[in-house]
Write a structure and sequence with these properties.
By secondary structure, the chain is an alpha+beta fold. It has one domain. Strand 4 and strand 5 form a beta hairpin. The radius of gyration is 12 Å and the shape is globular.
């Protein structure tokens, strides 16, 4: 699972060809003992994240919406994508 970004203790990844389980564009997030799938609209689809990290992630999604969809479109076609800059 290729890494898309890493910030504030979270690792954000995309799966190649990942269009079946959640049926909408989403990212996979790992934060300490938490794992979650979060839609590109910020919706928590599966798993759990602490509230603070979820809010940071949702802000990052808004700031990088175009880049996220570009990466998603490549990943579902099994093509490599560029990492995205973290929040500072």
């Amino acid at each position: 699972m290729p890494e898309l970004c890493r910030f504030h203790g979270m690792i954000i990844k995309l799966l190649f060809g990942d269009t079946v389980q959640h049926n909408k564009p989403h990212i996979h997030v790992y934060c300490a003992e938490h794992e979650a799938s979060v839609g590109m609209d910020g919706e928590l689809l599966a798993g759990s994240l602490p509230v603070k990290q979820l809010k940071l992630l949702q802000a990052w999604i808004i700031l990088h919406e175009d880049e996220l969809y570009q990466a998603w479109n490549k990943a579902v076609k099994n093509e490599s994508f560029n990492p995205i800059e973290p929040l500072r």
